[in-house]
Each structure stands twice: as C-alpha cells, then as structure tokens.
Design brief:
Layout lengths: L8 E6 L2 E6 L4 H15 L3 E6 L4 E6 L3 E7 L3 E7 L2 H14 L1 H5 L9 H19 L14
Antiparallel strand pairs: 1-2, 3-4, 4-5, 5-6
C-alpha cells in the first residue's frame, strides 16, 4: 500500500490505483488513524492527501475503498478490496519502514527523542489496528 518514503515523497497504492503523496500531509498518521477508526467502529472513514498540484480523498469501507481525485475536476474510483486486507498491508508497510515514516515530517530540526516518540506512536497505532483484524499471523511489536 505504501512505498518507502524518500525526500518527503511516497506512493500510495490500492489495487490498480496509485498516486504520490507529499510531506505536506502527515501521511502515516492520517492513514493509520483513519484505518483504526474504520476497523474499530465498522464505518467508512476518509483521509485527505496533498499530492502538490492536486488532492485526493481515500474513504475506507469494509469491502471497498473509494478515492475521490480532485485534479481538473473530480473523479471517483472504487476499488473492491477488503478493508482488513488493506489494513494488514498498511501495518506491514509502516513497520517495514518505521524509521523513515517517523522522520516523515522532519525538516532537519527533529531530535532523536522526537523521532523515537513518533516511531513509538506509529507502532502503537499499528498494534491498535491489529486488535480489530482477525489473523493467526499477527504479532505485537514492542518499541524500546
């Protein structure tokens, strides 16, 4: 779902749709918080992203994800994908690059402690999502 972030840019991919996201939006927290609310409350939840030149809103629902693209008008894409599968992919991608996502909004002034605290919060949100996703393969990851 998420590429490895580099220089304030990354890609979000859902099914056959993909687009860039920039540091202007706190991508990891917006995605994790929206996914967590959707999984916990069993309701559609939206997150909006800036691609620098256009924007898009991702709406997570149980069996499909809707994407509203605001670029020279509006376009709606609906992707049939189980939210639980997408949530697992999101958690795996954040965990795989947690240091880079913790540094996502670092403009050269973030301390090591601030990056650690941000990584801790990201992992905490990943663990929270895992509580709502049925799976025998999940493991809680501890930071420390």
């Amino acid at each position: 779902m998420l590429s490895k972030p580099k220089y304030g840019w990354a890609d979000i991919t859902i099914g056959d749709w993909s687009d860039r996201c920039s540091y202007l939006t706190d991508v990891p927290f917006q995605l994790l918080e929206a996914m967590c609310r959707s999984c916990k409350n069993h309701e559609p939840v939206a997150a909006k992203f800036d691609a620098e030149g256009w924007e898009y809103t991702i709406i997570f629902d149980w069996l499909e994800t809707h994407i509203i693209i605001e670029k020279d008008g509006f376009e709606l894409r609906t992707i049939e994908i189980n939210r639980d599968d997408l949530a697992k992919e999101l958690v795996e991608d954040i965990r795989a690059n947690v240091d880079e996502w913790a540094s996502w909004d670092d403009y050269g002034d973030m301390t090591k402690e601030e990056r650690f605290n941000r990584a801790f919060k990201l992992i905490k949100l990943c663990n929270e999502i895992m509580k709502y996703i049925p799976s025998d393969d999940w493991k809680i990851v501890y930071v420390g």
